[in-house]
Specification:
8 helices; four-stranded antiparallel β-sheet; binds adenosine-5'-triphosphate; six-stranded mixed β-sheet; about 250 residues; binds magnesium ion; alpha/beta; Rossmann fold
């Protein structure tokens, strides 16, 4: 069994931003050729490993590149360069309702997601009651998920993710919308997941959650990991220094 389910080396990600280069929409229409582009380097060489059974939190200001990092791991984006090695089944919880089809019912979405995450239809059928009960959405399970509240979406997404026998859980803030009772249930489930050897990489702005579950923190700023250590080592410095990067990435004109 491999002891580093997540391994990143020199990961880089750039986005291209386009600018109208004009002060108004009318001017933009008249001077459409003036459009310019700039390269936004969001991740500028990120390397780290996450060991089996470890829970690692990524900290950083808005726009620091945390969601981009998780999206790269979930294969939503391709890296500009660098390598990502993931060993084991990955269950991503990237944003509220991501992966759900709004017009399908909760039940249909459970099947759809279960299969996308690697289960057979039969395996989903065997687990569907456990998934729905854990999420506590039975009453609404035949309603389209577009009618769900934010908390209900988070509950169903989390419940599916922890019932598909994933080895790696990627969680981007989505648990923040759950109520107190569900949050407690999630933490209990996360502990159970880790005891069973599961590995977690998560993003949160809620430092009490980070202290509660993380073994290790990575502070992402200006596209790099600027500090790494236990929550007690990283959080006070993160809160005191609060990073130099309010706008995300380093831009260069193209
Ligand atoms: N698809 C995209 N195209 C262009 N720019 C993008 C794209 N996705 C993200 N960015 C830019 O990358 C930077 C990092 O965004 P990201 O969503 O990863 O930040 P974050 O750390 O998750 O912030 P937050 O705490 O607000 O969730 C931002 O400047 C954002 O505008
Ligand atoms: Mg984000």
């Amino acid at each position: 069994m491999n002891d580093t389910p997540i391994s990143l080396r020199d990961l880089r990600k750039e986005f291209v931003l386009s600018h109208q280069g004009a002060a108004s929409i009318k001017a933009a229409l008249l001077w459409w050729k003036r459009r310019s582009f700039e390269r936004l380097e969001v991740l500028r060489g990120v390397s780290f490993d996450v060991r089996r059974g470890e829970c690692v939190a990524v900290l950083g200001r808005n726009g620091a590149g945390k969601s981009t990092l998780l999206s790269l791991l979930a294969r939503v984006y391709k890296p500009t360069s660098g390598t990502i090695a993931l060993r084991g089944r990955v269950a991503p919880l990237l944003e509220l309702g991501a992966g759900f089809h709004p017009d399908l019912t909760g039940l249909e979405n459970v099947f759809f997601n279960g299969v996308v995450l690697g289960l057979t239809r039969r395996e989903v059928a065997e687990r569907v009651d456990a998934i729905v009960d854990f999420a506590e959405v039975r009453r609404h399970i035949d309603a389209p998920v577009r009618t769900y509240s934010s908390g209900m979406l988070a509950r169903l997404g989390f419940s599916i993710a922890v019932h598909v026998d994933a080895e790696i859980l990627l969680v981007d803030e989505v648990l923040a919308v759950g109520d107190y009772a569900f949050e407690r249930k999630c933490y209990a489930k996360i502990d159970e997941f880790r005891t069973g050897g599961g590995t977690i990489l998560f993003v949160s702005h809620e430092m009490s959650d980070v202290r509660r579950v993380a073994d290790r923190c990575l502070w992402l700023s200006e596209g790099r990991i600027v500090l790494e250590g236990t929550p007690d080592e990283v959080i006070p410095r993160y809160e005191a220094g609060y990073g130099p990067d309010p706008d995300g990435g380093t831009a260069t004109s193209l």
